[in-house]
Structure formats: structure tokens, C-alpha cells
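Q: A reviewer asked whether we had any structural model of the full assembly, not just the individual parts. We don't, so I'm hoping you can provide one. Inputs are below.
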Amino acid sequence: MADTNALLQLVPRAEGKQSMKDFKSDQEVRWCPGCGDYAVLAAVQGFMPQLGLAKENIVFVSGIGCSSRFPYYMNTYGMHSIHGRAPAIATGLAASRRDLSVWVVTGDGDALSIGGNHLVHALRRNVNLKILLFNNRIYGLTKGQYSPTSEVGKITKSTPMGSLDAPFNPVSLALGAEASFVARTVDSDRKHLTEVLRQAAEHPGTALIEIYQNCNIFNDGAFDVLKDRERAEEAVIRLEHGQPIRFGADGAKGVVRDPRTGDLEVVAVTADNEGDVLVHDAHAASPTTAFALSRLADPDTLHHTPIGVLRSVERPVYDTLMSEQLDTAVEQNGKGDLAALLAGNDTWTVVG
Amino acid sequence: MTSQVSSPAEQTDGADETVVGAQRKPVGTKDVRRLDRVIIRFAGDSGDGMQLTGDRFTSETASFGNDLSTLPNFPAEIRAPAGTLPGVSSFQLHFADHDILTPGDAPNVLVAMNPAALKANVGDLPRGAEIIVNTDEFTKRAMQKVGYDTSPLDDGSLDGYRLHPVPLTTLTVEALKEFDLSRKEAERSKNMFALGLLSWMYHRPTEGTEKFLKSKFAKKPDIAEANIAAYRAGWNFGETTEDFAVSYEVAPAATAFPPGTYRNISGNLSLAYGLIAASRQADLPLFLGSYPITPASDILHELSRHKNFGVRTFQAEDEIAGIGAALGAAFGGSLAVTTTSGPGVALKSETIGLAVSLELPLLVVDIQRGGPSTGLPTKTEQADLLQAMYGRNGEAPVPVVAPRTPADCFDAALEAARIALTYRTPVFLLSDGYLANGSEPWRIPETDELPDLAVRFAQGPNHTLDDGTEVFWPYKRDPHTLARPWAVPGTPGLEHRIGGIEKQDGTGNISYDPANHDFMVRTRQAKVDGIAVPDLEVDDPDGARTLVLGWGSTYGPITAAVRRLRTAGEPVAQAHLRHLNPFPANLGAVLKRYDKVVVPEMNLGQLATLIRAKYLVDAQSYNQVNGMPFKAEQLATVLKEAIDG
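A: Here is a predicted structure for the entire assembly that you could use as a starting point for your response.
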């Protein structure tokens, strides 16, 4: 595959041809039968040979939660860390080892609740990380409490009368946190998921991929509206860079800008307004339109949910800048001389 | 053997009387008296530049070759309300012609820049001490602000002291009238006037300070010249005014120091240097993940300046991310460090536990301060020992190393790195605010004296399965150290996954097996218990029956107290722990040799708790938690009571 990302050139490539099997570890996968995680794991294991990097230079770092078991099943280097901290740990690894391809696997509770701070700061810094955020809108591993992406009024064990707090929209949040790459995809759409992974891998800097993932035990069918062929046609807005944003049967619906407010709205496309349909520009310097797109989705019904790459822009990458400062320091001051450092400028000598 | 102190600059400046490092003698005919040691305290408002003044006097003193010890003491507020007692900032310096161990109990000289500084400090002075006050600041309003109804300068309350009333502000402004400065700007140089006066009183070399001022204000040459003028005016004032009839000589501590090249160094600086040295000795890049916190931030600042050593410093979004990033870098093969103080350790606890479970090298540097909670951010304490020992969920043993003096922070950092790298474990380095900001002369080591910390990453399979397959087992241990292999990403064939869930012995795969968990818990403990640490040395020349046992920064005051007792003919044994976990193997035997064991600590008895529990010894605690180091006299009294009791 064609590399557009110079940072990817720093990671050694595989010598021979790789197959999906090369990326499967010898550990038995222990997710519940029917879990959406299986599909994501298969998609990632299937994508890795396409990426073609030496597998010893790939690291998966995760936090805590069902999805965070992911690294155990990848035959790469991996760390299953503690709740919410994977972006911080991965930041240290990526910033100190630019020859590695570092991936973070996290969930809606891990990334947006206990680890919210680390996520937003990783995005703001633009560390060279690829973050896969499995969003099932529920706490699975602790057996079914509502999560920070659950819809208001969610009845769970911890909210028998319904949850009270408004959910995060992870894509909106990431855009607000200065993310340079934000995408959304769905566990069951292998082709779409793989394409988003490809674009994320090529992106220099932090890439956040929100993956809608079904928890068939505690929140089954949460995304059916986006998966069911008939309903999905009306509910899902597939974004493709450079293409008019149209969806519905035969592209009957489109997204246009309301000239009065500047906001986006969904309209029935007619001969008159066809020219007004917004053309998706993932590379737009301003995140404003991407943010507006992320707000089209109804948090309860998920109608008008955009999927695909909402934003992909290049901006300076933290680990590159850090590395450049080290080089500059050597250029300016020479390579560190320990004896000179310890001696300093103000010494005296005691002669025996 | 004869010793002499010389300065590298002496050769070039031979004819000049103001030689760097050489005593500058007054040219007048006033009396000169010889002293063996002096304790000076500079005190003023937190905006008066007292820390800078103290630092400069310290540098002059260091370059002259006295032994010295310093105690900066300042409020947590950056600019506390002017003229108030909480706003007083002070700097105490003890210097001598022999080796000394503490910044001194009671100042011989107090420089008080305002009424608040006088009021806050006069209680610490012995009768007969000299007090230099800036009379310009003793206005009615300023005195009332701190509760002086009458002026202490004339109401007789200072009769027991040798008072030198000096209009420092007026004299400074007068000295700078040729400069194009506002009165306010000129007044700001009054600390340099005071420094000049004190430099005259004690025959300090002056060239270093002039050079320092030129470089500090390189971009504002007018200000540099004004400060130098104020500094010289202070010196000349001492020389000419009749109020100061005597000046003092304190000879270099020629015999106190083994031969070598010396510099003055603070604990945080020597700790930062120790980390850089460890990185070089291990041939691993240094990675610091940290979040600003008093009194640890200076280590972050210092390491940030040395990127040309390959040092990466990461100012994280919080304490947790600081250690998280460090742990990530450790996984990648860096010498990883996080620096913090007590509240930060609390936040990092879970990640330290993960590091225990992952068995990766990681240095956790805790510059202890007064607690609990925010506590006393700028004051010292030793109350994080039990947090370092036990502050985690589960059985999570972590080695603990503590430096004893500011310069010793260098060696302690290397020792902590040795343990972390050899045993693949997080290690606590417990310094404190007193060590961090205090300073003393340091014999600069030759780089070939430094310990070899070379590490070997795993390069290939380390285990053969029954069917003959060669595999890599991330938790197959070295039989001697019980350390697991450190296989860094990028090594082909060694791909493996580690995590915080309990691991099967050997393979490292997830295991919930009860017997395996029991084995792994005991093995992690055995690894830490088995760390090779040197035996505890006991200093007991007289066959004493009482042992005083300390750890960390109490070394100076304890040793000074022990010397006083011995001089007075009281035998007392002394031992000081560098390794708090594991303890030296001979500690139990040492404790049992004495009738009495006294443990002075700046906490409520944390080391005493540990040794009582482990060795069933009836150790007596002596505790102080007032944010300040022990005074030698106070400890000597306590030890005497223990000996007699």
C-alpha cells in the first residue's frame, strides 16, 4: 500500500509476506459469544498484513474493560494496563520510540469516563497513536451499568429509574479536543472498518476511531438502526471525502448548510437544492463543519449518524517535535558531556 | 599531609585582590577576628530577593572553600501580602573552617529587611547575636502591621543583641542616584547592598557575584550595573562606617575535605544529575514523565535543560499521566522516571502497583513535604515512608532508597537506578524538601568512578517446551535476582503481552489459578526481599549502649548531635539507613546489640513502626513535624536523656 505518512517510514516493514494468522496470538479469546469485539479483532488482524509493518514493531496498549483484553489476542507486543490510563502509557512509549506503531484499544467507560483527561490531552498533543474506541454505550465488564455514552433515561442496575446525565458524543468531544483525525465506524461493517483503519494508520499523529460495538449481553441491539439494511439507509450518513453528503434510498436526502444560522440540516434533495448539498471535506482546516456533522446524529435514536472520516488534517506531531528538540539541543550545545555537566562553572580544588 | 584550597581562577587573576574564590580582605584598619564558624540568616519579604541573596552568599562561601550547609525557608505563596509575618522568606547559611553537618540551630547574625522579618526570626537568636535591620522599613504602619506597638529598635527589647540599624533602602537609593532609575527600581537593589555589607563583614570573595549579576542581567546592562554598584556600596559602607567596628575571618575548611574538585550543590540538582549519570551508565535514554509540584518541580526544570543528553521530559496532564508515560517508556526500554511529592504519590499509587505487576524498571522520586493532603508545600517532612512502603492495593512491595544529604542525592539516584534496572522493579527514591533546596559542597566524581549499570535486553528465546520448541517466556526469572527478562518492542520473535491481571508463572499468560497467585505474590515479595543491599555501618567508637538510628535528611542533625555528645564524653552509637526496603541484612543484629534504640524522625514514628514490627525491638521514637529540620542541640538533649534514662 502506498505510504503517505512519513512517520510510518520510521517503522520497519515486515520482511516476508504476512497473513492474518501471523497476528493471532495463542491465547483463547474470552469475550462473550456474539460480542461485537470479535468482529473488530478479526478486522484488525486482517488489516495488519495490509499495513505490512514488522509485527515486533507494533504495540497494542489498552486500559480496563471488555475491549481492553484486545492486546492479549494480538501476536504483537502489548500491554493491558489500568483503567483509563492507556493513552498516557502509550504516549510515553510512542514519544520515546518513534520506530513503533502504537495502538490504543479502549472503551466508552475507559476512554471517556475514568480516562477522559488522558484522551483529550493525547488528542491535543497529537501524539502518534491510533486509538480504537469501542463504544457499546454500556459498562460490560462490571455487568451492565450505564456509561458516559448511554442515552439519557437508560435503565440499568445502577439507574433503576433511568440515568440522569447527558451522554458524550465521542466524535464531538474529540473534535473539541483539537483532534487531527476523527472517524467513526461500525463493528459489523468489515469493509468500512478496514478502510477507516487504513486511513488512520496512514495519518501522522493521533487518530481517534470510534467503533460502534454491540454488547449482546447488556445492551444488545444498541446500533441495530445503523446495521439493519432498511433502517440504516435512512439512519446512516456515509461520509466520503470529496463526495456530496447524501444518504437515504437513492440518495434522496442530503446535508445542506442553513444560510441563516450556518448550521447543518438534513433536507430532501430536489433539483433546486441539489447544488447546495455539502461536499465532504475531511481535510478542511477548520473543524467547524466536522463538528456540525457530528451533531446531526440524534443521541437517542442515532438517526442521521455520520460514519467515515470526519476530519483528517495534518499538524505537528508531538513525538516528532520532541525528537527534533533533542536534535536541536545537540546541534546547539554538542552531545552531552557528563563530566562537564557535573563540574558546572563554579568549582574549587582541594589539593591533598 | 598539607592541604590547600586553591581556585582555578587564581592563576589568571594573581595580582588582583578580588580573586574568585580567594578571600577579599578589607583594606581599612579595623579589627579582624577569627571565627571557626558562623550562622547567618537573611530574612525579608517574599519579594525582597532573600533566596537570591542567600544563594549568592553561599556561592561566595563555597568558592572560598568553607564547608557549608544551607536552609532556605519560604512561604508557599509566590508574593504573600507585603510586610506580613506569613510573607517572610528567609535563607540560613552555616559556614565553617571545619566540616559541618547542618544549617545550624541558631543564627549568629540576622539580617532583617523589615519589621515582619525581625519579628518572625528574632525568637531564634541567642542573646548576643548581631542583628542588622533595614531601619527605612520600620515605619509606624509597618510595625503595627506585625504587632509592634513601640519600635523594637528603641524600646530596649533588643538590648541583649548587638543591633546595627542601617538605612539600607536610603543608602541603596543614594548609591544609585547616578543611574537613570526610578526610586522603586533603585530600591530593589537593597538586597545587593545587604549582600555587599555581609560580604565585607566575612571577607567573602566578590568577583563571583559581580560576574553573576552581569550574566543574570545581560539583557539589561543598566540593571546589572546598578546591582553591582549597590553591592559595592554595601561593601564600602562596612569598610567606612563606624557602626561596624569588626570584621571576621572564617578560614577555609582545608582539612575537612578529601582532595578533589568541589562545587556547591542542592539536593534537587544533584538528584537530577544522578539521573542523567544513571542514564549514561546504563546506556539507556532517560525519560521523565512528571507534573509540576512543589518541591519536586526543579528536577523537571533541570532535566528539561539537558536534552542534548538524550533526555526526554514530558510534562503530563496530571500525576497519573506522568507516571503512566514513564511506565510506557520503560516498556520501550528507557530509564524511566517520575518525580513528585506526597500528594502526587497518592495519585500514582495504582500505576506503581501496575509497575510492580509488570516488573518493569521505574524510578518514583518523592520529594516529601508536609502533609496530609496539600499540607505544607514548601516545608520538609518524612511522613511518606509508610505510603512508599504500603500505599498500594494488594501485596505490592517496592524497594525504597533515601538520600541523607543534598549531595548524596546524586549517589542515591544511581543506587535507585541500579536496583530498578537489576531487579526490574519500581523503586522509591525518598528525598525531602530540606534536601531538595538545601545545599552543601560536593566533591565532583570522576565519571569513571560511577557504577556500571549496563543492562541486557532479552534477545531470543529463553525456554524450551517439552516438544523441543524454543519460546520466549516473559515471566521466566533469573534464578539469582528473580528478575524477569526485559524484552523491548522491536525485538523480533519476542512479541509478548503483559498486564495487571495475575500472570501465570513463566509464560505470563493470564491466570486465575489460586496456587499460582499465591506463588506469584510470594515470588514478587521474595524478589524485593532478596535485593542485595550493603550492610548497615555503625559508628560506635566508644562501645555505647544507646544507638541512634535515622534515615534520610535527619543525617546532618543526628550526626551533629552525636558529635556533641561524644565531645562531652557521652558514648552513643549512630547508624543511618539508606535502604528502607529491603533493610540491610544485618539490621536486626545491630539493633539487638544495644540496650536502647532511639529513632528521630520528622514524622510520628514511621521507621520506628517498621523496625518494631520486623525486629520486635523496643525502639523509642523522637518526632518533630513542624516543617523544619531537627536542631542538633535539641537532638543532643533527647539522646542524652535516653542515655541517662
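A: Points you may want to mention in the reply: Chain B has a mean pLDDT of 94. The first strand of chain B starts at residue 4 and ends at 6.
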